[in-house]
Amino acid sequence: MIRCDELTKYFNGTRALDGCSFEISEPTLTGVIGVNGAGKTTLFKSIAGFLKPTKGEVYILDEQAFQNIIAAQNVMLTEDGMSFYPTASLHELIGSYSRFYPNFDQSLAIKLTEYFRLEEKKKYNELSKGMKSTFRLILALSARAPITLLDEPTTGMDPGVRKELFELILKDYIKVPRIILISSHYLGEMEELLDSILFIHEGKVLKHDDVEEFQTFLTGVQGAPKLIESLEDKLQIYDCKDFGAGIRRIIVESKDLESLSLKEDVMNSLTFKGVSPEDAFVYLTKRKGGGIDELYHS
Amino acid sequence: MNSIIHKDSQMSVAFEQFKDKLYHNSFAFFQLIALQALGYLFSFSSSMTGIGDQHFMLSIRHISPIPLFIMSVIWIVVQAFGFSGEKRREYYMVSNNFTAYFSDIAVLEIYAVIIGITMVFSGPMLQLLAGLSSGYPNLGTTYDSMTALHYLSLFITTTFYALLFGAGAYFLGILRSRYQSFLVIGSIAFILLLITWSLLGIRFIGPGFNIGTAGVKQFYVQETSIMLWLIKIIGSLGALYGLSWLAIKNLEVNR
User: Fold this and answer.
1) Taking every pair of C-alpha atoms in chain A, what is the biggest distance, in angstroms?
2) Percent of chain B beyond pLDDT 90?
3) SS3 A86
4) What is the C-alpha separation between B121 and B36, in angstroms, rounded?
5) Which residues of A touch B98 (CB under 8 A)?
6) What are the Cα distances from residue B138, in Å, to B6, B38, B126, B151?
7) Which CATH architecture has domain A2-214?
8) Distance from C-alpha of A131 to C-alpha of A139, rounded to nearest angstrom
């Protein structure tokens, strides 16, 4: 249902997306992960048909997405910059959305509005930042569009509400399976509800895989500094840290480590630790050459 | 159960948008009423004479619907600018450039018809107000001799003129949305083009060559044949709508 072929987008000479290619054809809950400015919002807007690719193409239901009415009817995008009629109450906005999205579940939208204590008579601009995010998410889930794009859906929310909303997304997805793409900085919190992760860095798709694959993608190897240093030449190192005089830890790709086929005595003198997808995300996006430490010690 | 895929036509989406825009912009009609009320005040050409603050006399010389029409035109221009400038919100609610454009134009047509209707009723209303406020019931006797055909032509002309102003404002608004800062450069280029055209016109046609606002006004207002007038107006509307479509066609939603 979603296919990106070498999708590239420039804004006034600045590259936002750089040859992104991926495909999602089955209902899945996919987390779109990347640092600020990685190109997540540009990707979402391109899928929604808002932006015209500079190069490459986005296909929704096998049709080019840009300004395509079929794509528009089957894609629901919510983001922070979304705007609404300023004079309309929440109740009126729910009414409007229900007329445009044929699958819209109005009773669910009203129930959720009541549950999250949003006054239906209020106008969108009168809501707090967190309440605005909640309302946008209510609209997005109630629309029940075959493709739902949630760009930073939990912006401004406190942890309690955030947890409830992630639970809500999962429950709604189980009830009506569809393609849901969520971009969020809280990978740790939403990790357990995701099927797959689309990892974007500097406008490129670095990795698109199942969550399980991300959970085992990197491994922490800890041991005596000399032994660890002997491995460093043979492996791609994502992070390296010394813990006192006798312990050094490196982060490496699990498959690279397996390919070394280390002897049993070496294996026994090392400690291996799994790396969570959230930490993997940090290591994979880490700047080359130094970091905050270097700023303070230079 | 999976989510159902829908493939409705552009026209059905555009019609839904048209209804939605009318509904969410219903407050605009109150703005029109307020502006027209102000227009009624200016429609009485009067003078006040008196000594000090005790004795004064209000005398109404004549009544004219022109200020009323000007207020209505201001209203439709503001609405058209609003439609062309605030485009983002509709795209989040199923839209593409065609449906957004089509529904905007349809709403502006309705607005122009409303202006036409209110202008038809402005004559009797002005007479009534003149009679009530100053005891001059015979003011505006021109309205007494108006036939149904006159009222029909008043309706058609005011509707089309309102549409023309609305379409012009919509076109400028779309240009502003699409090209933003380039609009300033474009405007300067357009002025330079006009100056060059004027210089060439004077050089080759003579000093009588005139492309000023007076010439434009003359082109649209002074016409004896109704058919020619209609061709001019509809042609101009078509050109403005066509240019607006060309400007909105590949507009991206990214602000």
Assistant:
1) 72
2) 40
3) coil
4) 12
5) 67, 69
6) 63, 23, 11, 19
7) 3-Layer(aba) Sandwich (3.40)
8) 12
Contact B96 A73 (CB under 8 A): no
Provide CATH 3.30.70 ranges for chain A.
Answer: 219-274
Residue segments in chain A with a per-residue pLDDT below the cut of 50: none
Contacts of B32 by beta carbon, 8 Å cutoff, 6+ apart: B72, B75, B114, B115, B118
pLDDT score for A213: 86
Task: Locate CATH 3.40.50.300 in chain A.
Answer: 2-214
The pLDDT assigned to B48 comes to: 56
CB contact A45 to B (< 8 Å): yes
Q: Are A75 and A23 in contact (CB under 8 A)?
A: no
> Which residues on neighbouring strands pair with residue B60, listed in sequence order?
B46
Does the distance separating the beta carbons of B8 and A72 come in below 8 Å? Answer: no
Give the integer Cα–Cα distance in Å for A145 and A75: 6
Nearest to A50 among B16, B98, B254 (CB): B254
Contact B24 A83 (CB under 8 A): no
Candidates B11, B19, B96, partner chain A, best to mutate (most A CBs within 10 A): B96
CB-based contact, A223 to chain B, within 8 Å: no
Question: Could you report the predicted ipTM of this complex, rounded to two decimals?
Answer: 0.84
> Which residues of chain B, if any, have pLDDT below 70?
1, 45-62, 133-144, 181, 207-212, 255
Predicted pLDDT at B129: 76
CATH of domain A219-274: 3.30.70
Q: How far apart are CA B95 and CA B99, in angstroms?
A: 6
Of B184, B124, B120, the closest CA to residue B149 belongs to B120
Kindly report, residue by residue over A59-85, the tens digit of the pLDDT: 999 999 999 999 999 999 999 888 899
